[in-house]
Q: What sequence folds into this?
Protein backbone atom coordinates (compact mmCIF):
# COMPACT_ATOMS: atom_id res chain seq x y z
CA UNK A 1 0.00 0.00 0.00
CA UNK A 2 3.02 2.28 0.39
CA UNK A 3 3.36 2.35 -3.40
CA UNK A 4 -0.36 2.87 -3.97
CA UNK A 5 -0.52 5.73 -1.49
CA UNK A 6 2.67 7.33 -2.82
CA UNK A 7 1.49 7.05 -6.41
CA UNK A 8 -1.95 8.48 -5.61
CA UNK A 9 -0.47 11.34 -3.61
CA UNK A 10 1.98 11.90 -6.46
CA UNK A 11 -0.69 12.24 -9.16
CA UNK A 12 -3.38 13.75 -6.96
CA UNK A 13 -2.25 17.35 -7.26
CA UNK A 14 -1.73 17.84 -10.97
CA UNK A 15 -0.18 21.31 -10.67
CA UNK A 16 2.36 20.11 -8.13
CA UNK A 17 3.06 17.06 -10.30
CA UNK A 18 3.67 19.20 -13.37
CA UNK A 19 5.94 21.60 -11.47
CA UNK A 20 7.94 18.69 -10.06
CA UNK A 21 8.31 17.01 -13.42
CA UNK A 22 9.19 20.25 -15.21
CA UNK A 23 11.91 20.86 -12.61
CA UNK A 24 13.36 17.37 -12.99
CA UNK A 25 13.06 17.40 -16.78
CA UNK A 26 14.78 20.79 -16.93
CA UNK A 27 17.51 19.48 -14.68
CA UNK A 28 18.00 16.22 -16.60
CA UNK A 29 17.99 17.94 -20.00
CA UNK A 30 20.44 20.58 -18.85
CA UNK A 31 22.76 18.02 -17.27
CA UNK A 32 22.52 15.67 -20.27
CA UNK A 33 23.24 18.42 -22.77
CA UNK A 34 26.06 19.99 -20.78
CA UNK A 35 27.76 16.72 -19.89
CA UNK A 36 26.98 15.38 -23.37
CA UNK A 37 28.70 18.42 -24.86
CA UNK A 38 31.59 17.93 -22.45
CA UNK A 39 32.00 14.29 -23.51
CA UNK A 40 31.45 15.27 -27.13
CA UNK A 41 34.10 17.96 -26.86
CA UNK A 42 36.47 15.47 -25.26
CA UNK A 43 35.87 13.03 -28.10
CA UNK A 44 36.42 15.74 -30.69
CA UNK A 45 39.56 16.99 -29.00
CA UNK A 46 41.06 13.52 -28.83
CA UNK A 47 39.58 12.18 -32.07
CA UNK A 48 42.83 12.39 -34.04
CA UNK A 49 44.88 11.00 -31.18
CA UNK A 50 42.43 8.12 -30.66
CA UNK A 51 42.62 7.21 -34.35
CA UNK A 52 46.39 7.50 -34.55
CA UNK A 53 47.21 3.95 -33.54
CA UNK A 54 50.15 5.55 -31.67
CA UNK A 55 51.85 4.36 -28.53
CA UNK A 56 54.12 7.36 -28.26
CA UNK A 57 54.04 10.88 -29.70
CA UNK A 58 57.08 12.97 -30.43
CA UNK A 59 55.85 16.57 -30.31
CA UNK A 60 57.40 20.03 -30.37
CA UNK A 61 58.20 21.11 -26.81
CA UNK A 62 55.09 22.28 -25.05
CA UNK A 63 52.66 21.23 -27.81
CA UNK A 64 49.29 21.53 -26.15
CA UNK A 65 47.15 19.57 -28.57
CA UNK A 66 46.99 17.92 -31.96
CA UNK A 67 45.79 21.17 -33.52
CA UNK A 68 48.85 22.99 -32.20
CA UNK A 69 50.55 24.34 -35.29
CA UNK A 70 54.22 24.27 -34.25
CA UNK A 71 56.69 22.12 -36.21
CA UNK A 72 59.49 19.78 -35.21
CA UNK A 73 62.97 20.71 -36.41
CA UNK A 74 63.19 17.74 -38.75
CA UNK A 75 64.75 14.29 -38.80
CA UNK A 76 63.06 13.12 -35.60
CA UNK A 77 61.47 10.15 -37.42
CA UNK A 78 64.85 8.70 -38.36
CA UNK A 79 66.34 9.54 -34.99
CA UNK A 80 63.51 7.61 -33.38
CA UNK A 81 63.86 4.65 -35.75
CA UNK A 82 67.51 4.36 -34.78
CA UNK A 83 66.65 3.84 -31.14
CA UNK A 84 66.17 0.37 -29.63
CA UNK A 85 62.62 -0.85 -29.16
CA UNK A 86 61.08 1.37 -31.83
CA UNK A 87 59.06 -0.64 -34.35
CA UNK A 88 57.84 2.23 -36.53
CA UNK A 89 57.88 6.01 -36.66
CA UNK A 90 55.50 8.02 -38.83
CA UNK A 91 55.62 11.69 -39.63
CA UNK A 92 52.41 13.66 -39.35
CA UNK A 93 52.24 17.22 -40.65
CA UNK A 94 49.57 19.39 -39.10
CA UNK A 95 49.03 23.08 -39.58
CA UNK A 96 46.32 25.68 -39.82
CA UNK A 97 46.07 26.82 -43.42
CA UNK A 98 43.86 29.10 -45.45
CA UNK A 99 41.25 27.56 -47.78
CA UNK A 100 40.22 29.94 -50.54
CA UNK A 101 36.51 29.58 -51.17
CA UNK A 102 34.69 29.94 -54.45
CA UNK A 103 33.41 33.39 -53.43
CA UNK A 104 37.00 34.56 -52.94
CA UNK A 105 36.77 34.53 -49.18
CA UNK A 106 38.97 32.45 -46.94
CA UNK A 107 38.26 29.72 -44.42
CA UNK A 108 40.88 28.56 -41.97
CA UNK A 109 41.37 24.77 -42.07
CA UNK A 110 43.53 22.27 -40.20
CA UNK A 111 45.50 20.35 -42.81
CA UNK A 112 46.60 16.86 -41.76
CA UNK A 113 49.22 15.07 -43.85
CA UNK A 114 50.15 11.46 -43.11
CA UNK A 115 52.56 8.96 -44.64
CA UNK A 116 51.06 7.19 -47.59
CA UNK A 117 52.33 3.74 -46.71
CA UNK A 118 51.37 3.88 -43.06
CA UNK A 119 47.99 3.12 -41.60
CA UNK A 120 48.39 5.70 -38.85
CA UNK A 121 45.94 8.53 -38.77
CA UNK A 122 44.31 7.96 -42.13
CA UNK A 123 40.89 9.54 -42.70
CA UNK A 124 38.12 7.35 -41.30
CA UNK A 125 34.30 7.19 -41.49
CA UNK A 126 34.46 7.67 -45.27
CA UNK A 127 31.00 8.06 -46.78
CA UNK A 128 32.15 8.88 -50.33
CA UNK A 129 35.41 8.08 -52.10
CA UNK A 130 38.29 6.15 -50.53
CA UNK A 131 41.60 6.77 -48.81
CA UNK A 132 43.33 5.64 -52.02
CA UNK A 133 41.79 8.67 -53.77
CA UNK A 134 44.06 10.79 -51.63
CA UNK A 135 46.93 9.93 -53.99
CA UNK A 136 45.23 11.63 -56.94
CA UNK A 137 46.67 15.01 -57.93
CA UNK A 138 45.87 17.87 -55.52
CA UNK A 139 43.61 15.56 -53.52
CA UNK A 140 42.22 16.39 -50.09
CA UNK A 141 39.53 14.70 -48.00
CA UNK A 142 36.97 16.81 -46.11
CA UNK A 143 34.17 16.13 -43.64
CA UNK A 144 30.51 16.40 -44.57
CA UNK A 145 29.82 18.83 -41.73
CA UNK A 146 32.22 21.42 -43.10
CA UNK A 147 31.38 21.33 -46.82
CA UNK A 148 29.25 24.45 -46.46
CA UNK A 149 32.10 26.28 -44.72
CA UNK A 150 34.41 25.32 -47.58
CA UNK A 151 31.72 26.32 -50.09
CA UNK A 152 31.88 23.02 -51.89
CA UNK A 153 29.04 20.59 -52.52
CA UNK A 154 31.00 17.35 -52.63
CA UNK A 155 33.59 15.22 -54.40
CA UNK A 156 35.17 16.81 -57.46
CA UNK A 157 34.82 20.39 -56.29
CA UNK A 158 37.93 22.38 -55.54
CA UNK A 159 39.40 25.34 -53.76
CA UNK A 160 42.89 26.53 -52.92
CA UNK A 161 45.13 25.87 -49.95
CA UNK A 162 47.80 28.50 -49.55
CA UNK A 163 47.39 29.40 -53.20
CA UNK A 164 47.66 25.81 -54.48
CA UNK A 165 44.76 23.92 -55.99
CA UNK A 166 43.08 21.36 -53.76
CA UNK A 167 40.37 18.97 -54.98
CA UNK A 168 37.89 17.20 -52.72
CA UNK A 169 38.22 13.47 -53.54
CA UNK A 170 36.46 11.86 -50.58
CA UNK A 171 34.05 12.79 -47.82
CA UNK A 172 34.12 11.69 -44.19
CA UNK A 173 31.38 11.85 -41.58
CA UNK A 174 31.67 13.06 -38.00
CA UNK A 175 35.32 14.05 -37.98
CA UNK A 176 34.93 17.36 -36.19
CA UNK A 177 37.41 19.70 -34.57
CA UNK A 178 36.92 21.42 -31.24
CA UNK A 179 37.98 24.72 -32.77
CA UNK A 180 35.31 24.22 -35.48
CA UNK A 181 38.04 24.58 -38.14
CA UNK A 182 37.53 21.90 -40.79
CA UNK A 183 40.10 19.10 -40.97
CA UNK A 184 41.46 18.37 -44.43
CA UNK A 185 43.37 15.11 -44.94
CA UNK A 186 46.04 14.77 -47.56
CA UNK A 187 49.27 12.87 -48.14
CA UNK A 188 52.32 13.78 -46.11
CA UNK A 189 54.31 14.92 -49.13
CA UNK A 190 51.47 17.18 -50.35
CA UNK A 191 50.99 18.55 -46.87
CA UNK A 192 54.67 19.41 -46.71
CA UNK A 193 54.31 21.25 -50.02
CA UNK A 194 51.27 23.17 -48.78
CA UNK A 195 53.05 23.98 -45.52
CA UNK A 196 56.40 24.62 -47.20
CA UNK A 197 58.18 22.19 -44.88
CA UNK A 198 61.51 20.51 -45.42
CA UNK A 199 61.57 16.89 -46.66
CA UNK A 200 62.11 15.44 -43.18
CA UNK A 201 60.06 17.96 -41.25
CA UNK A 202 56.70 17.33 -39.61
CA UNK A 203 54.43 18.43 -36.77
CA UNK A 204 54.46 15.14 -34.85
CA UNK A 205 56.02 11.70 -35.07
CA UNK A 206 53.81 8.75 -34.19
CA UNK A 207 55.85 5.93 -32.67
CA UNK A 208 54.98 2.27 -32.15
CA UNK A 209 57.22 0.08 -30.05
CA UNK A 210 58.28 -3.48 -30.70
CA UNK A 211 56.09 -6.16 -29.05
CA UNK A 212 58.85 -7.17 -26.65
CA UNK A 213 59.79 -3.60 -25.71
CA UNK A 214 58.49 -1.54 -22.81
CA UNK A 215 56.63 1.61 -23.84
CA UNK A 216 57.92 3.41 -20.74
CA UNK A 217 61.53 2.41 -21.42
CA UNK A 218 61.35 3.46 -25.08
CA UNK A 219 59.73 6.70 -24.11
CA UNK A 220 62.49 7.45 -21.59
CA UNK A 221 65.14 6.58 -24.14
CA UNK A 222 63.61 8.81 -26.84
CA UNK A 223 63.18 11.69 -24.43
CA UNK A 224 66.81 11.38 -23.41
CA UNK A 225 68.25 11.10 -26.92
CA UNK A 226 66.07 13.43 -29.01
CA UNK A 227 66.59 17.15 -28.54
CA UNK A 228 63.96 19.87 -28.23
CA UNK A 229 60.99 17.51 -28.23
CA UNK A 230 58.44 16.14 -25.81
CA UNK A 231 57.84 12.40 -25.89
CA UNK A 232 54.39 11.57 -24.64
CA UNK A 233 52.34 8.43 -24.32
CA UNK A 234 49.01 8.40 -26.13
CA UNK A 235 47.23 8.88 -22.79
CA UNK A 236 49.43 11.81 -21.81
CA UNK A 237 48.84 13.54 -25.12
CA UNK A 238 45.08 12.97 -24.79
CA UNK A 239 45.08 14.37 -21.26
CA UNK A 240 47.20 17.34 -22.24
CA UNK A 241 44.90 18.15 -25.16
CA UNK A 242 41.73 17.81 -23.09
CA UNK A 243 43.20 19.89 -20.32
CA UNK A 244 44.27 22.58 -22.75
CA UNK A 245 40.98 22.97 -24.57
CA UNK A 246 38.55 22.25 -21.77
CA UNK A 247 40.24 23.73 -18.75
CA UNK A 248 42.93 26.18 -19.83
CA UNK A 249 40.35 27.88 -22.06
CA UNK A 250 37.55 27.62 -19.48
CA UNK A 251 35.21 25.94 -21.97
CA UNK A 252 35.00 22.74 -19.97
CA UNK A 253 34.46 24.61 -16.72
CA UNK A 254 31.54 26.43 -18.34
CA UNK A 255 30.00 23.13 -19.45
CA UNK A 256 30.46 21.59 -16.01
CA UNK A 257 29.06 24.73 -14.37
CA UNK A 258 25.98 24.38 -16.58
CA UNK A 259 25.54 20.77 -15.48
CA UNK A 260 25.95 21.73 -11.82
CA UNK A 261 23.42 24.52 -12.29
CA UNK A 262 21.00 21.95 -13.71
CA UNK A 263 21.56 19.76 -10.68
CA UNK A 264 20.98 22.65 -8.26
CA UNK A 265 17.79 23.71 -10.04
CA UNK A 266 16.60 20.11 -9.92
CA UNK A 267 17.32 19.75 -6.20
CA UNK A 268 15.62 23.05 -5.34
CA UNK A 269 12.51 22.42 -7.44
CA UNK A 270 12.05 18.82 -6.32
CA UNK A 271 12.75 19.63 -2.68
CA UNK A 272 10.29 22.51 -2.76
CA UNK A 273 7.50 20.57 -4.44
CA UNK A 274 8.00 17.44 -2.32
CA UNK A 275 7.99 19.57 0.80
CA UNK A 276 4.83 21.35 -0.35
CA UNK A 277 3.20 18.02 -1.20
CA UNK A 278 4.12 16.64 2.22
CA UNK A 279 2.67 19.72 3.90
CA UNK A 280 -0.52 19.28 1.89
CA UNK A 281 -0.79 15.69 3.10
CA UNK A 282 0.39 16.35 6.65
CA UNK A 283 -2.93 15.42 8.20
CA UNK A 284 -2.82 12.11 6.34
CA UNK A 285 0.69 11.40 7.55
CA UNK A 286 -0.45 12.25 11.10
CA UNK A 287 -3.33 9.82 10.64
CA UNK A 288 -0.91 7.15 9.47
CA UNK A 289 1.22 7.79 12.54
CA UNK A 290 -1.88 7.63 14.78
CA UNK A 291 -2.85 4.34 13.16
CA UNK A 292 0.53 3.03 14.26
CA UNK A 293 2.65 3.46 11.14
CA UNK A 294 6.33 3.46 11.92
CA UNK A 295 8.42 6.47 10.97
CA UNK A 296 10.07 4.24 8.37
CA UNK A 297 6.69 3.45 6.79
CA UNK A 298 5.91 7.15 6.38
CA UNK A 299 9.40 7.90 5.10
CA UNK A 300 8.94 5.17 2.51
CA UNK A 301 5.80 6.87 1.21
CA UNK A 302 7.76 10.09 0.68
CA UNK A 303 10.77 8.30 -0.77
CA UNK A 304 8.61 6.34 -3.20
CA UNK A 305 7.12 9.66 -4.33
CA UNK A 306 10.65 10.99 -4.81
CA UNK A 307 11.71 7.90 -6.75
CA UNK A 308 8.58 8.07 -8.92
CA UNK A 309 9.38 11.72 -9.67
CA UNK A 310 12.93 10.74 -10.54
CA UNK A 311 11.96 7.91 -12.88
CA UNK A 312 9.26 9.80 -14.77
CA UNK A 313 11.26 13.05 -14.89
CA UNK A 314 14.35 11.17 -16.04
CA UNK A 315 12.55 9.34 -18.83
CA UNK A 316 10.97 12.53 -20.18
CA UNK A 317 14.22 14.47 -19.73
CA UNK A 318 16.34 11.88 -21.50
CA UNK A 319 13.82 11.63 -24.34
CA UNK A 320 14.18 15.38 -24.80
CA UNK A 321 17.97 15.21 -24.54
CA UNK A 322 18.09 12.48 -27.20
CA UNK A 323 15.78 14.57 -29.36
CA UNK A 324 18.17 17.52 -29.06
CA UNK A 325 21.07 15.18 -29.80
CA UNK A 326 19.30 13.86 -32.90
CA UNK A 327 18.36 17.35 -34.07
CA UNK A 328 21.96 18.53 -33.82
CA UNK A 329 23.58 15.37 -35.24
CA UNK A 330 24.73 17.07 -38.46
CA UNK A 331 25.88 20.32 -36.91
CA UNK A 332 29.37 21.16 -35.74
CA UNK A 333 28.14 20.70 -32.18
CA UNK A 334 29.05 17.26 -30.89
CA UNK A 335 26.95 15.92 -28.06
CA UNK A 336 27.81 12.45 -26.83
CA UNK A 337 25.31 10.66 -24.63
CA UNK A 338 26.83 7.29 -23.89
CA UNK A 339 25.06 4.43 -22.08
CA UNK A 340 27.38 5.14 -19.16
CA UNK A 341 26.35 8.80 -19.08
CA UNK A 342 22.68 7.83 -19.33
CA UNK A 343 23.09 5.47 -16.37
CA UNK A 344 25.07 8.05 -14.40
CA UNK A 345 22.39 10.67 -15.05
CA UNK A 346 19.71 8.28 -13.85
CA UNK A 347 21.64 7.67 -10.63
CA UNK A 348 22.24 11.42 -10.23
CA UNK A 349 18.53 12.13 -10.79
CA UNK A 350 17.56 9.44 -8.32
CA UNK A 351 20.03 10.74 -5.74
CA UNK A 352 18.87 14.31 -6.38
CA UNK A 353 15.22 13.38 -5.76
CA UNK A 354 16.00 11.29 -2.68
CA UNK A 355 18.20 14.09 -1.33
CA UNK A 356 15.39 16.53 -2.06
CA UNK A 357 13.04 14.40 0.04
CA UNK A 358 15.10 15.10 3.17
CA UNK A 359 13.26 18.34 3.99
CA UNK A 360 9.92 16.57 3.62
CA UNK A 361 11.11 13.66 5.76
CA UNK A 362 12.35 16.03 8.47
CA UNK A 363 8.95 17.75 8.39
CA UNK A 364 7.05 14.50 8.71
CA UNK A 365 9.40 13.17 11.39
CA UNK A 366 8.42 16.10 13.57
CA UNK A 367 4.75 15.52 12.96
CA UNK A 368 2.50 15.52 16.01
CA UNK A 369 0.00 12.69 15.62
CA UNK A 370 -2.25 14.54 18.09
CA UNK A 371 -3.17 16.84 15.22
CA UNK A 372 -5.55 14.10 14.07
CA UNK A 373 -7.86 15.31 16.84
CA UNK A 374 -7.77 18.93 15.74
CA UNK A 375 -11.18 20.00 14.62
CA UNK B 1 -16.33 -7.52 35.69
CA UNK B 2 -13.62 -9.93 36.71
CA UNK B 3 -11.73 -9.89 33.44
CA UNK B 4 -8.52 -7.88 33.46
CA UNK B 5 -9.01 -4.37 32.05
CA UNK B 6 -8.07 -3.70 28.44
CA UNK B 7 -6.70 -0.32 29.47
CA UNK B 8 -5.75 0.95 32.88
CA UNK B 9 -4.89 4.56 33.71
CA UNK B 10 -3.68 5.56 37.16
CA UNK B 11 -3.14 9.11 38.38
CA UNK B 12 -2.77 10.55 34.90
CA UNK B 13 -1.85 14.22 34.78
CA UNK B 14 -0.95 16.19 31.74
CA UNK B 15 0.46 19.66 31.39
CA UNK B 16 -0.12 21.42 28.09
CA UNK B 17 1.86 24.37 26.74
CA UNK B 18 5.21 25.76 27.76
CA UNK B 19 6.03 27.66 30.97
CA UNK B 20 4.93 30.21 32.01
CA UNK B 21 1.71 29.61 30.04
CA UNK B 22 1.02 26.06 31.12
CA UNK B 23 -2.34 24.45 31.65
CA UNK B 24 -2.98 21.29 33.59
CA UNK B 25 -5.40 19.53 31.26
CA UNK B 26 -5.67 16.37 33.38
CA UNK B 27 -5.36 16.29 37.15
CA UNK B 28 -4.80 12.72 38.25
CA UNK B 29 -7.28 10.71 36.21
CA UNK B 30 -7.72 7.08 37.16
CA UNK B 31 -9.86 4.98 34.85
CA UNK B 32 -9.91 1.50 33.41
CA UNK B 33 -11.72 0.12 30.37
CA UNK B 34 -13.28 -3.31 30.62
CA UNK B 35 -13.72 -5.76 27.76
CA UNK B 36 -17.16 -5.96 26.18
CA UNK B 37 -18.01 -2.47 27.40
CA UNK B 38 -18.88 0.72 25.57
CA UNK B 39 -17.76 3.65 27.68
CA UNK B 40 -18.76 7.23 26.93
CA UNK B 41 -16.59 10.10 28.10
CA UNK B 42 -18.58 13.29 28.30
CA UNK B 43 -17.72 16.76 29.43
CA UNK B 44 -17.71 20.39 28.37
CA UNK B 45 -15.20 21.82 25.93
CA UNK B 46 -11.76 22.18 27.50
CA UNK B 47 -12.50 19.62 30.20
CA UNK B 48 -9.66 17.32 29.06
CA UNK B 49 -11.62 14.75 27.01
CA UNK B 50 -9.43 14.85 23.91
CA UNK B 51 -6.25 15.00 25.98
CA UNK B 52 -7.33 11.85 27.80
CA UNK B 53 -8.24 10.18 24.51
CA UNK B 54 -4.81 11.10 23.09
CA UNK B 55 -3.11 9.59 26.13
CA UNK B 56 -5.25 6.43 25.92
CA UNK B 57 -4.25 6.24 22.25
CA UNK B 58 -0.55 6.49 23.13
CA UNK B 59 -0.35 9.65 21.07
CA UNK B 60 0.36 11.92 24.02
CA UNK B 61 2.46 10.84 26.96
CA UNK B 62 1.15 11.61 30.44
CA UNK B 63 3.16 14.10 32.47
CA UNK B 64 2.63 11.90 35.49
CA UNK B 65 0.85 8.66 36.19
CA UNK B 66 0.85 5.32 34.47
CA UNK B 67 -1.00 3.88 31.51
CA UNK B 68 -1.23 0.17 30.83
CA UNK B 69 -2.52 -1.27 27.57
CA UNK B 70 -3.34 -4.97 27.71
CA UNK B 71 -1.34 -5.11 30.95
CA UNK B 72 1.72 -3.49 29.41
CA UNK B 73 2.94 -0.21 30.89
CA UNK B 74 3.70 2.53 28.38
CA UNK B 75 6.15 4.21 30.71
CA UNK B 76 9.54 4.82 29.12
CA UNK B 77 8.42 3.59 25.71
CA UNK B 78 9.95 5.25 22.67
CA UNK B 79 7.81 6.82 19.93
CA UNK B 80 8.33 3.72 17.79
CA UNK B 81 7.37 1.37 20.61
CA UNK B 82 4.22 3.41 21.20
CA UNK B 83 3.44 3.24 17.48
CA UNK B 84 3.84 -0.52 17.65
CA UNK B 85 1.44 -0.63 20.60
CA UNK B 86 -1.10 1.40 18.61
CA UNK B 87 -0.67 -0.95 15.66
CA UNK B 88 -1.27 -4.04 17.74
CA UNK B 89 -3.91 -2.88 20.21
CA UNK B 90 -5.70 0.32 19.26
CA UNK B 91 -8.16 1.33 16.57
CA UNK B 92 -9.12 4.97 16.05
CA UNK B 93 -12.33 6.56 14.84
CA UNK B 94 -12.07 10.28 14.20
CA UNK B 95 -14.67 12.99 14.16
CA UNK B 96 -13.43 14.19 10.75
CA UNK B 97 -13.09 10.56 9.57
CA UNK B 98 -9.46 11.17 8.47
CA UNK B 99 -9.82 8.96 5.44
CA UNK B 100 -7.24 9.17 2.67
CA UNK B 101 -8.92 11.08 -0.15
CA UNK B 102 -6.81 9.48 -2.85
CA UNK B 103 -7.74 5.94 -1.81
CA UNK B 104 -11.03 4.10 -2.26
CA UNK B 105 -13.00 2.85 0.75
CA UNK B 106 -11.49 -0.59 0.23
CA UNK B 107 -7.96 0.81 -0.06
CA UNK B 108 -8.39 2.93 3.06
CA UNK B 109 -9.10 -0.23 5.01
CA UNK B 110 -6.30 -2.13 3.27
CA UNK B 111 -3.89 0.65 4.20
CA UNK B 112 -4.70 0.20 7.90
CA UNK B 113 -4.12 -3.52 7.49
CA UNK B 114 -0.79 -2.81 5.82
CA UNK B 115 0.21 -0.40 8.61
CA UNK B 116 -0.71 -3.02 11.21
CA UNK B 117 1.53 -5.52 9.37
CA UNK B 118 -1.09 -8.18 9.73
CA UNK B 119 -0.22 -11.21 7.69
CA UNK B 120 -3.42 -12.08 5.85
CA UNK B 121 -3.67 -14.21 2.74
CA UNK B 122 -5.83 -11.78 0.83
CA UNK B 123 -5.78 -8.23 2.22
CA UNK B 124 -8.29 -6.99 -0.37
CA UNK B 125 -10.78 -9.70 0.56
CA UNK B 126 -10.24 -9.01 4.28
CA UNK B 127 -10.86 -5.30 3.70
CA UNK B 128 -13.98 -6.07 1.67
CA UNK B 129 -15.37 -8.27 4.42
CA UNK B 130 -14.75 -5.52 6.97
CA UNK B 131 -16.66 -3.06 4.80
CA UNK B 132 -19.45 -5.52 4.15
CA UNK B 133 -19.74 -5.98 7.92
CA UNK B 134 -20.38 -2.26 8.35
CA UNK B 135 -22.92 -2.26 5.51
CA UNK B 136 -20.72 -0.80 2.80
CA UNK B 137 -20.44 -3.77 0.47
CA UNK B 138 -21.82 -1.61 -2.32
CA UNK B 139 -19.31 1.24 -1.81
CA UNK B 140 -16.02 -0.65 -1.91
CA UNK B 141 -14.59 1.26 -4.86
CA UNK B 142 -15.92 4.66 -3.86
CA UNK B 143 -13.58 7.48 -2.93
CA UNK B 144 -14.33 9.33 0.33
CA UNK B 145 -15.47 12.41 -1.57
CA UNK B 146 -18.27 10.32 -3.08
CA UNK B 147 -19.46 8.97 0.28
CA UNK B 148 -21.95 10.52 2.68
CA UNK B 149 -20.82 11.47 6.20
CA UNK B 150 -22.39 8.34 7.64
CA UNK B 151 -20.71 6.16 5.03
CA UNK B 152 -17.35 7.79 5.66
CA UNK B 153 -17.68 7.14 9.36
CA UNK B 154 -18.52 3.51 8.66
CA UNK B 155 -15.38 3.22 6.53
CA UNK B 156 -13.52 4.73 9.48
CA UNK B 157 -15.07 2.12 11.78
CA UNK B 158 -14.15 -0.70 9.38
CA UNK B 159 -10.61 0.67 9.30
CA UNK B 160 -10.43 0.81 13.09
CA UNK B 161 -11.55 -2.81 13.36
CA UNK B 162 -9.23 -4.27 10.78
CA UNK B 163 -6.44 -6.23 12.40
CA UNK B 164 -8.67 -6.88 15.39
CA UNK B 165 -7.43 -4.35 17.98
CA UNK B 166 -8.56 -4.79 21.57
CA UNK B 167 -9.35 -1.09 22.15
CA UNK B 168 -11.41 1.17 19.91
CA UNK B 169 -11.08 4.87 20.65
CA UNK B 170 -13.65 7.10 19.02
CA UNK B 171 -13.43 10.87 18.99
CA UNK B 172 -16.87 12.47 18.59
CA UNK B 173 -17.93 9.85 16.04
CA UNK B 174 -21.43 11.28 15.59
CA UNK B 175 -20.69 15.00 15.85
CA UNK B 176 -20.69 15.56 12.09
CA UNK B 177 -23.66 13.29 11.40
CA UNK B 178 -27.39 13.80 11.30
CA UNK B 179 -29.64 11.90 13.71
CA UNK B 180 -30.24 8.91 11.45
CA UNK B 181 -26.60 8.42 10.54
CA UNK B 182 -25.46 9.12 14.09
CA UNK B 183 -27.81 6.43 15.38
CA UNK B 184 -26.61 3.97 12.73
CA UNK B 185 -22.99 4.58 13.66
CA UNK B 186 -23.71 4.15 17.37
CA UNK B 187 -25.62 0.95 16.72
CA UNK B 188 -22.59 -0.32 14.91
CA UNK B 189 -20.23 0.67 17.74
CA UNK B 190 -22.61 -0.83 20.25
CA UNK B 191 -22.58 -4.10 18.33
CA UNK B 192 -18.80 -4.04 18.12
CA UNK B 193 -18.45 -3.50 21.85
CA UNK B 194 -20.40 -6.68 22.58
CA UNK B 195 -17.30 -8.58 21.62
CA UNK B 196 -15.74 -9.49 24.96
CA UNK B 197 -12.24 -9.29 23.53
CA UNK B 198 -12.67 -5.60 22.90
CA UNK B 199 -13.42 -2.36 24.68
CA UNK B 200 -14.90 0.73 23.03
CA UNK B 201 -14.22 4.21 24.42
CA UNK B 202 -16.16 7.11 22.93
CA UNK B 203 -15.53 10.79 23.60
CA UNK B 204 -18.67 12.77 22.90
CA UNK B 205 -20.77 15.84 23.45
CA UNK B 206 -23.76 14.16 21.90
CA UNK B 207 -26.35 13.25 24.53
CA UNK B 208 -28.40 11.41 21.89
CA UNK B 209 -25.99 8.49 22.10
CA UNK B 210 -26.24 7.99 25.88
CA UNK B 211 -28.60 4.98 25.54
CA UNK B 212 -25.93 3.02 23.67
CA UNK B 213 -23.41 3.13 26.51
CA UNK B 214 -22.71 0.61 29.26
CA UNK B 215 -20.91 3.25 31.21
CA UNK B 216 -20.90 7.02 31.25
CA UNK B 217 -17.87 8.86 32.59
CA UNK B 218 -18.05 12.61 33.06
CA UNK B 219 -14.99 14.79 33.16
CA UNK B 220 -14.74 18.43 34.21
CA UNK B 221 -11.68 20.59 34.49
CA UNK B 222 -9.33 17.62 34.19
CA UNK B 223 -11.03 15.51 36.86
CA UNK B 224 -13.41 12.58 36.58
CA UNK B 225 -16.54 13.79 38.35
CA UNK B 226 -18.80 10.82 37.78
CA UNK B 227 -18.55 7.25 36.55
CA UNK B 228 -21.92 5.54 36.13
CA UNK B 229 -22.69 2.14 34.70
CA UNK B 230 -26.06 1.55 33.07
CA UNK B 231 -27.88 -1.10 31.16
CA UNK B 232 -27.62 -0.17 27.54
CA UNK B 233 -30.72 0.14 25.40
A:
Amino acid sequence: MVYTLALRNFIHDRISLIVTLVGIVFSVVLMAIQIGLYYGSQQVITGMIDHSNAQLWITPIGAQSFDDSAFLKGGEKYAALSRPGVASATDVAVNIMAWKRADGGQQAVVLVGTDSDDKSLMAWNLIEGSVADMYKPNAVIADKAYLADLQVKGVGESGEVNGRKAVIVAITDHIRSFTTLPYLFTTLSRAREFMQLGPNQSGFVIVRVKPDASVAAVRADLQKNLRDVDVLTNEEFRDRSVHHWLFATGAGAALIAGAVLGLIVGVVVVAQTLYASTKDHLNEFATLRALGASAGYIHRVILVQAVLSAIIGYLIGMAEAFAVNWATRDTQLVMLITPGLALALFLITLTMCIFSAIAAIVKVTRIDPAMVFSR
Amino acid sequence: MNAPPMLEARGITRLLGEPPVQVQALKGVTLSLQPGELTLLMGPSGSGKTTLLSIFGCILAPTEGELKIAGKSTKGMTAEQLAELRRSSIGFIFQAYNLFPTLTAEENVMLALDVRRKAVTNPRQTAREALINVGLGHRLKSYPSKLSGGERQRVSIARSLIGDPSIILADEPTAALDGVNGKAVMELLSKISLDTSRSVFVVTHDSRILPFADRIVRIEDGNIVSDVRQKRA
The mean pLDDT of chain A is 86. The beta strands of chain A are 56-60, 86-100, 106-114, 126-128, 139-143, 158-161, 164-172, 183-187, 204-209, 229-233.
